[in-house]
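Dear support,

We are seeing what looks like truncated structure output for some complexes. This example has three components. We would appreciate it if you could run it in full and send us the complete token output so we can diff it against ours.
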Amino acid sequence: MPLWQIYHPQGAYTAQDRQELSLKITKLYRRAGLPAFYVNVLFQEMAPGSFFVGGESDDEYVRIVIDHIARRMESEMFPLFMDAVHKLIAPWVANRGYRFEIHGDETPFEFWTVQGLTPPPAGSDEEKRWARDNFASAPIVAPEG
Amino acid sequence: MPLWQIYHPQGAYTAQDRQELSLKITKLYRRAGLPAFYVNVLFQEMAPGSFFVGGESDDEYVRIVIDHIARRMESEMFPLFMDAVHKLIAPWVANRGYRFEIHGDETPFEFWTVQGLTPPPAGSDEEKRWARDNFASAPIVAPEG
Amino acid sequence: MPLWQIYHPQGAYTAQDRQELSLKITKLYRRAGLPAFYVNVLFQEMAPGSFFVGGESDDEYVRIVIDHIARRMESEMFPLFMDAVHKLIAPWVANRGYRFEIHGDETPFEFWTVQGLTPPPAGSDEEKRWARDNFASAPIVAPEG
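Here is the complete output from our reference environment:
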């Protein structure tokens, strides 16, 4: 969680663009306490002539699809979150003249594993440990007394 | 909303095919009052040998994945909607001998923006304005006094 | 249902790998009574430098996204299911040194058709017929008395 799939025009982003943008996205979620490695960003080039808006081909479009897994947001949080996203992506999207649309979904927490491990509950000490380590590891079991 | 992702065999569709099919899809949603520009269609070629059905490679398959965002449908509406979809896609799918499967999801309205703007409520005057303009614009605020 | 989208490093899997892995996935769902042809697996190569984890490019990662349509699972079933998935994919993922993350969603049953047909209810005689035939066919209507 989250998985961002960024569908973008061919050749739109250099390796540096991708790294900087994915780092900014990571920082957004770090502020909410998520481990950095939870943040997955996949850049997908759209071949020219493969994306259509209202029945017209549009090769200057960035279409972002987000899956949130680790956290649920209250309805009133979405406008704030989306505003933060707009600001974050502006240098690579609006400021370059690309049209854009973003939508996301919230998928079941229990239908999710990282490196074969069940992630710890949101906000738990174990999650904080994963965040500090920036690494998924098996739960630490207290040694028997 | 909607986002149609059409996974199809390599070379299956010409530029004209894509334009005509995406225009037909757009018209389906226009009938329900949606702005044309809400309708996003992404054609994704599947490389030969990359799609499997029941454990067997199938390169004559069209797999459509739909996200609905702006509208929720009552359960009893789905058969009618899917029938309309089958008729609409037939010239590019069944009539060409492709096997096909379609499924969709309904994702949260509030987890969605277009050109950085929160879309107006379903069926509202503002949505009608967006539909008339075929353009996303900030709400019109009544002048004071 | 299910649709597995397997995002993987370029060149990671041979045709034989793909066939064997998709066959294993199919068998997992066959055990739950699903028709084999319900199981769709799409292998998607990620171009080098297109996938980021925590803001860092990672080209040794397998990212699996699953949509379940035909069945809902009780919360307590997920750990067992995910364990079965981990064992199943190990020869192509963990055992090859790839890092991996898996998540899935459950999408509405009624927003789904196969070959233009509404699939029969879960566990019904008609579904058993589809499973035996490994083929989607129109319902058999009892001849009038």
